[in-house]
Each structure stands twice: as structure tokens, then as C-alpha cells.
Amino acid sequence: MKMFNKVVIIGTGLIGGSLGLVLKQKGLAGQVIGLSRHLKNARLAKQAGAIDQVGTSLEVVEDADLIILATPVNVIISMASQIAKRIKKDCLVIDVGSSKELIVAGLTRLLPNFLGCHPLAGSEKKGIINSTGNIFKDSVCIITPTVKTKIQTLSKIKMLWKKIGAQVVLLSAKEHDKALAFTSHLPHVLAFSLISSIPEGYLSLSSSGLKDTTRIAGSDAQLWSEIFLSNRVNLLATLRIFQKQLAILKFALKNKNKPQLIRLLLLANAQRNKL
Amino acid sequence: MKMFNKVVIIGTGLIGGSLGLVLKQKGLAGQVIGLSRHLKNARLAKQAGAIDQVGTSLEVVEDADLIILATPVNVIISMASQIAKRIKKDCLVIDVGSSKELIVAGLTRLLPNFLGCHPLAGSEKKGIINSTGNIFKDSVCIITPTVKTKIQTLSKIKMLWKKIGAQVVLLSAKEHDKALAFTSHLPHVLAFSLISSIPEGYLSLSSSGLKDTTRIAGSDAQLWSEIFLSNRVNLLATLRIFQKQLAILKFALKNKNKPQLIRLLLLANAQRNKL
């Protein structure tokens, strides 16, 4: 079932490392090389069996068949320009960043066989040590082709994600960023703001409700600042919509309007049931 | 280890039913009677082994040693006036409502041996069928005595919760409601508002982040409308604080102020780690 002779994963954190693990487990790659700005992370990935070898310089990309860019959003863009001139003509390149418009616009220009991907997997915890094996099984992976994407690139990458266990959804980068602003970036902004609103002395007087609503407030600050900034306009728009929704509930509460409160909560119940 | 001969639980849902289960499992009650406005719920509680007998009228409270009021907040208050003239002089009465000031003020006047309790347990799911046995084990139970609370009442109820596995925290009803507005009622308002903000078509493009942040948006609409209204002033105050916090993050995002964004997210990380 080998799909690629040599795969290079740049960024061997939770997502990059977990991809390496699954590629190796499923025998989809002849060889997996891991590169990281932090040598320690790449070494941990090797120890975890996620990569065969720790790469020591970008030269390792030269004979790669697939390159997976799994670094923070801003690093993906700068990394692409560094690998563009080194790679083989037919080398496929994918990224796994959480926002897509900036990345797809930048990388499509630089790399003829690039395809933007966003596996909706992962957690608030960083690093390969937090991988539980195949975190992609039964997950959704959004793929964002452009008019320039070659059919062969698209079909091979689609097959890759399917073999890994993900359900593939195709969206434009623009539509992806609009959707994810709502379903991922907004919940993160709210979780960060919620936990910061609570007086420290009250934290012990909480139960699973607060724990679950703020789990993702443990997410990496640097990584998420980059994601927020890279999807800034959409995120600001979703924040306005959320604030309107909150104002409606607040208005009902202020006015002791119980029938309206119940109606709003029932609508929320129904929407939550669709998740 | 029997602490009470006859216990009557009014409201045999998730909390009331689970209390019955644990009282019986631990042999803390000679007999447990369950009463519910919905006969079906009481019957389910009997089937689940949470009560020995389904009560058919309020007369069952007449020789009770402990009465547990486990109905929605507004029903607790009306129920108290109905039982006040029927119970024995030394019968202990506790409630398990999510807000305390209104309940404690009302019930202290009516019932000489009343003590307000709030076990921080439960879930967004209703009914005894969603009980996983001892949901109180390793939970926190807040008890809200007043100057009128008798020492014997307080020590017996403290012992009850400890035997059930909960860690007991004493607070005034006022302080309870201030704290829970932050740690429970605010997260619920945000979860309801968040899920309602998301266009339906995007719901499938989500992962565990949205699921966890909105789990409690599945909570019962009637029950939570009552809780919000019963703690309205505190909840509106916490909402203002949350909105300020959100505005700070939004301002940093609007101004592409990355150092400030990172700083805010790091503070949130640190606060989340204390949970």
C-alpha cells in the first residue's frame, strides 16, 4: 500500500508527528523524515516511532515525493519559499494549517503541486507525546483545491486522507476560512476570554461545565495568535454575530422575559443536537 | 451507617435520583420515597433502584427525617410552602438548587431545619437514566448556612455529603451566587449563544473544540431559564466583565497587535491551568 517513497514532515508536533505515525503504521511511506526548528521535538518524534530519521537540514526535501508542512501558520508560508527551489518537479506538497486563504494564495504561486489541507483533529495539547495514535480516524479533513490544482494531485491527496481514516470535504480556501472562523476560531476566542473573566478565587467552585467550555483555552498562545491573525477579518465578523446573539439573550434576561429565554435556549438545544 | 429512617426526595431527575441511588447503596437511609410531578420519572427512579417507593401524595413527607428538594429552582420555593405545615418538627430539609439566595431566603423563613446545598455535579443530560451511579464522588458540594442554621443540622448534612463522597465547602448564599454566576451560569449563557451563532451548514465542519465548548448548550431550557432568572443580577454583572475581556482581545485582533494577543492568550493559559 506504499503511496510515497520518501515523505518529509516539517514540524513534528502533534499533527505532524501523528501523521508520521499513521503513515508508518499503514505502510503508506517508504521512509519518513522529520524536520523541526526544535531538534528536541524531532527526536521525540523519532523515539515515538513517528519518523524514521531526524533531518538536519532542508536538503532532505530534495528527493522527497511528499512534503507535509505542519508548522504554525506563519512558518508554513516562510518555509514554502525555502523549499520551493529545492524540491523535485513532481513532489507533492501539503500543509495542515488551521486557516487557508493566506497559505493557499502564497503557496499556490510557489509550488506547482501544492494542495491545502486542514485535518480537523488535534487537541489543546502540544507535541507528539500527546498523540494517541491515529487521531485522524473518523475525523473530517478539509481540502482546498484551486483552479490551478492538478487532478492527479487532488486525487492522490484525497486518497491519502481516506486511507488515514478521514472523511474528505472539498471547499475553497475562502469558504474554509469563513466556516472555521465560526466552528473553531470563535470558540477559541470565547474560551480564552471566558477563563480570563473568572476571579481566581472562584475557580475551585466549578464543575465539568466550566472545564469543558474552557478546555481549548489551554491551547498554545503563539500558535493561536497566528491563527487568529491569519483569519482576522472573518473572525471579527463572527465575533459581531456572536455578540448580537449574546445581546439577545442578555436583553431577555434583563427584562425577565422568561418565555423568550426558554425559546432562545430551546433553539440552542436544537442546534446543539445537530452537532 | 444509617443516618435517616425515612428520606423523601422531591424531584427524581438526575440529581435527585442519583442521590437516592447513593443513599441506598451506602445504606444511609432506612427507606427512600420519591415524588415527582411526572409520575413516569418517579417510576423510572424506582426501576433504577434509586428509590424504594413512588410517593403518590405529599402526605409521605409527614414522618420523613430528611427531605431533599431536587426540582427546578422555582418549584423548590413553591414546594417548600406546601411541605412546611406537614413535616415533623425535627425533619431536616435540604435543596440542591443551582442558585441559593432566593431559595435560602424563602426556605429559612418557612422551615426551621432547612439547609441550602448545591452539589457541583450533574450534566447537560436530564433524568435518572443518565445517572452513572455516584456522580457526587470527588465532587464539591457547596453548603450555605445562615445565622439561623442549627449546629446539629449543619453537622449532620455535612456528614451526609462527606459520606456520599463530596468535598464540602461552606459559603453564604450571596457569595455562592456571585461565584456560580462566573463558574457555571456564565459558561452556560456563552455556550447557548455560541451554538446559536453558527450557521447550520457549517456545523459539520467542526471538531472536538466546538463540541466541548457547547456541550452544556444541550442543557434543559426550562431548568436553565429559571436558574438564569434566579441569579439575574449577578449573571448580568459577570456578563459585563466577560464582554470587557472579549473586547480587549477583539481590540488586539483588530489592531493586529500580536504581542498583546500572545500576552492575553498566555494569561488565559495560566488561568486554565489552575482549574
Q: What composes the largest sheet of chain A?
A: 8 strands, mixed
* Oligomer type: homodimer
Determine the fraction of residues in helical runs of chain A and give it as a percent range. Answer: 40-55%
What would you give as the CATH superfamily of the largest domain in chain A? NAD(P)-binding Rossmann-like Domain
Tell me the fraction of residues in β-strands of chain A, as a range: 5-15%
- Biggest sheet strand line-up of chain A: 3-2-1-4-5-6-7-8
Q: How many domains in all of chain A?
A: 2
CATH topology of the largest domain in chain A: Rossmann fold
CATH domain class name of the largest domain in chain A: Alpha Beta
**Cα Rg of chain A:** 21 Å
**Greatest contact between two chains:** A-B, 84 and 84 residues
> How many DSSP E strands of chain A?
8
- CATH architecture level-2 label of the largest domain in chain A: 3-Layer(aba) Sandwich
Structural class per helix/strand content of chain A?
Answer: alpha/beta
- Element pattern of chain A in H and E: EHEHEEHEHEEHEHHHHH
Structure description:
The structure is a homodimer of 275-residue chains. The first copy, chain A, is built from ten helices and eight strands. In chain A, helix 6 (173-197) packs across helix 9. Chain A folds into two domains: 4-171, Rossmann fold (3-Layer(aba) Sandwich); 176-273, 6-phosphogluconate dehydrogenase C-terminal like domain (6-phosphogluconate dehydrogenase C-terminal fold), CATH 1.10.3660. Chain A has an eight-stranded mixed beta sheet with strand order 3-2-1-4-5-6-7-8, with helices on both faces. The longest helix of chain A has 25 residues, at 173-197. Chain A is of the alpha/beta class and 275 residues long. The first copy, chain A, is 50% helix and 14% strand. Chain A is elongated. Chains A and B meet through helix 6, helix 7, helix 8, helix 9 and helix 10 of A and helix 6, helix 7, helix 8, helix 9 and helix 10 of B.
